[in-house]
Amino acid sequence: MQIIAEIGLLFFLILLNAGFSLAEMALVSSRRAALALMAQKQISGAARARTLADKPDRFLPTVQIGITAISVLTGVVGGAQLAQALTPELKHITTIAPIASTLSLIITVVTVTFLTLVFGELVPKQLALRNAERIACLVALPLDLFARAAAPLVLVLRGTTHVVLRAFGPVDPHRRAVSEEELKAILAEGTESGMLESEERDMMERVMRLADKPVRAIMTPRQDIAWLDRTAPRGQVITALKSAPHSRFVVCDRSIDNVVGIVQAKDILDRMLDGKDISIATSLRQPLAVPDAISALDALERLKSDPLGVAFVLDEYGSFEGMVTVGDLLEAIVGDVEEPSLTETGEDVPDRFDLDGLEPVDEVAHRLKLGDLPAHGSYHTLGGFLLALLKRVPRQGDAIAYGGWRFEVLAMNGRRVERVRISRDPTVVP
After folding, report:
1. Where are the chain's structural domains?
2. What pLDDT digit, counting tens, does each position of 139-183 carry?
3. What does each C-alpha distance from 130 to 22, 123, 124, 134, 260 come to in angstroms?
4. pLDDT tens per residue across span 307-355
5. CA distances from 220 to 159, 255, 313, 334, 357 (A)
């Protein structure tokens, strides 16, 4: 009867060990964001589990106290009691009678170790990894109560641990911060698992790149801006309104080098409908002016509160470089809304396609997996990339290979690359 009680006590101790192992692994492997979301939904135990997970120096000593105490008790029950009970039974076997005591101890230790490892450690930890957050919510209350009961001992252990850890240097406060590369890896994993669509992943990655992209990389350059002269006659203004698909026009004094403001087509049409004369001077508005060195994200912050939603981009000498709108920033996040581009082709890149020379080079490099670009930072468009590769102003028909791809200039607009054909380099084996 005594041996049955001791075996029952042994299994009870292994079960307790399993509970502590389950709680430890569940809290350690739980995602903080998932626990926060569960707490917002008022799922029982979620808030307590998040509190414990955020303070590992509180629950880890508690778990270690429990596991250590159980291990000692298991050793006493298994090593002493069960081994002594097994020895008389082995002595009945004549061939092993001389070593019955030693053999019983070995059998007991191996058996108890095996049961503890399998049912007290491995199985509960694997179960915790399968559904860490839900299990963390279930074990949070009993573990918290045990932590409160063992608080004095935990306090001593924590203080001793901190003293010892000082010898290994200070703690990095940002050690648990997720880097941009890790976040991209998480997005890739979410796409592979089906939790995210590839378009959602692309959009999130574009948002992350927005802070690294200067505003001049997404602006409309001065060469492509539709503008009106401040002294333009009525007929010329009406022709511009009819022919150009723009809602805003830059107003200049005789040339694009002398910008004086901006007019909205709506303001001019309102005057016409009211029977008034067309007056550019009356409708003239002054947009924001931003330096070309600020990031696209900074430009977005400034434009959010601007009623016009447009800004002139100036270089360090005050010269007009181009114009950026909220629409340009939106396209930098969601992709070109006017025509398909490389940024909207998903993960599969075709073997040959044509792109505008103003296509952002970082998007092209990302899709084609070009790696580090030569003299990157001195240009921001596909045309600038070709100029850096050729080391001269490109000409129509120029072609050059880079990173397993062939880039051919299809059309030029003055000294600006207007159209580029990209195809896989046949000399490179994929």
Report:
1. 2-168, 183-210, 215-334, 342-424
2. 888 888 888 888 888 788 778 878 888 888 776 655 556 677 778
3. 11, 11, 10, 10, 64
4. 888 999 998 888 899 999 988 888 888 766 554 445 444 456 778 888 9
5. 61, 17, 9, 17, 12
Please name the residues in contact with 376: beta carbons below 8 A apart, sequence gap of 6 or more.
361
CATH number for the region 342-424 comes to 3.30.465.10
| Alpha-helical regions (H) of 166-252 | 180-193, 198-210, 234-243
CA dist 304 and 299 (Å) reads: 9
Sorted by sequence, the CB contacts under 8 Å of residue 324 that are 6+ apart come out as 215, 218, 219, 220, 290, 299, 303, 310, 311, 313
pLDDT at 340: 46
Alpha helices in 31-131 (DSSP H): 32-40, 46-54, 56-75, 83-91, 100-115, 123-130
**Angstrom distances, CA of residue 292 to CA of 36, 219, 311, 312:** 40, 9, 11, 9
CA dihedral 184, 188, 189, 193 (to 10 degrees): 150
Q: How deeply is 343 buried, as exposed, middle or buried, from its count of CB atoms within 10 A (0-12, 13-18, 19+)? A: buried
CB 408 within 8 Å of CB 398: yes
Question: In whole angstroms, what is the distance from residue 297 CA to residue 312 CA?
Answer: 16
| Strands 416-424 and 352-356, sheet pairing | antiparallel
CATH topology for the 215-334 domain: CBS-domain (3.10.580)
Q: What is the pLDDT of residue 78?
A: 63
Q: What is the pTM of this model?
A: 0.53
Count of helix runs (H) and strand runs (E) in the chain: 18, 11
DSSP state of 82: I
Counting beta carbons within 10 angstroms of the beta carbon of residue 182, is it exposed (0 to 12), middle (13 to 18) or buried (19 or more)? exposed
Which of 7, 93, 3, 5 minimizes the C-alpha distance to 101? Answer: 93
- pLDDT by residue (tens digit) across 345-397? 445 677 888 898 888 888 888 888 887 888 776 788 888 899 989 989 999 99
Strand ranges across the sheet with 248-252? 227-229, 248-252, 259-264
Mean pLDDT, the chain, whole residue set: 83
